[in-house]
Amino acid sequence: CFLGFFFVLATERKEEASAAENHPSRVPQGKVGDRSSILYSAGQFFFEYLVVVSLKKMSDGRYEPKITYQFPKRENLLKGQKEEEERLLQAIPLFCFPDGNNWAPVTEFTSETFSFVLTNVDGSRKIGYCRRLLPSGRGVRLPEVFCIISCLGCFGLFSKILDEVEKRRQISMAVIYPFMQGLRESPFPAPGKTVTIKSFIPESGTELIELTRPVDAHLEHVEFQALLQRLSPHLILHIFASAVLERRLIFLAEELSVLSQCIHAVAALLYPFTWAHTYIPVVPECLLDTVCCPTPFMVGIQMRHLERVLDQPMEEALIVDLCEGKILRAVGDEEEILPIKLQNEMLTSLNRHNNNNNVHTSEQVNTLISEAFVQFFVRMVGHYASHIKWSKNGSGTFQERAFCKAVASKTNRKFVKKFVKTNMFSLFIEEAEKSRIPQEGKT
Predict the structure, then answer these.
(1) How distant, in Å, are the alpha carbons of 58, 384, 386, 389, 402 from that of 406?
(2) What global pTM score does this model have?
């Protein structure tokens, strides 16, 4: 059955796909196209580090983010491991406070949750889950960021962990340590399973905190609702069409949480394929020249930097305003990229969700939206397995020309001929050529 094989292969590739590469210069980075797993194996550590990033006043009056707390401390590292750790720790503050150095103490600050992804020189990737908040106290204070570094892609789960961290921060920093120690000693649960953490809080006693993973692992780093609340189905399809052809995409919003949630959602629309180019959900101010990159990218930039972005000498790009729900700049052919019949079917699916906005849970919304886009790929390229020629030694060779000719519809074939040239399709096929599943009755 094609669909069975499609999802077997998709699972192998996309267990790693909820968080794509992040390739800014001056931070840990890998070559475009480097792919290593964001691991989802049950039983491994929840996280590598918890760090606190605080703003320290410099001699010129500006503030610079610095790591002021790190758990656990690492000792007895080999030289290469120590250098990698130092690069990671140097990059983290930049992404915890991407807004720049112009801060001032305040009495009120709404806490926000966002995430970033760093790719190391060996292609390995780590996710930073951040909660920016104002410490408890009186008078004016500066916000600080609690950042959990993990190779596990599960935004909902880590948001709940950060809720617990924030609750303890209002009591004392000392209460955070035993909770994180208990978390670190607990095994990461399998999809659909729950792990229970015991944690003692002064005056409240021992609490049992249950952390449950979604059943569908490939959607656990995704919140499609965030995208649907800000953009019309029509615009979402324009963005999807641009992403499918691996163009340059720039998203604008003021809130870091909106940027990271929406960009993760757009990347997830490509399932079971993977965005394999520059991917920076929140671009730090000092890296705004990323938009001059001639290769494909998907980046999020705070709205305050709009004029600077528009002044950059960039090549053709799709610029999306998530605040107003509109496209500020486009190539012009977005309406024509996807075959019109399938485009209308996807619009119907998205509009059906909008008309029943209060009926579904977040997980149900994720499943419904993902299914609509998966079916698009099934219809367009689902016959790929029939066009892999297998040699006697078990290696496969994809027959691209025959694959394209097998598409009966001229409009569909026009799209497929473009899509087969993308990096994401090539990576998918490379995996398929190595993933032969013996047919029944054959060896």
Answers:
(1) 64, 10, 10, 15, 6
(2) 0.82
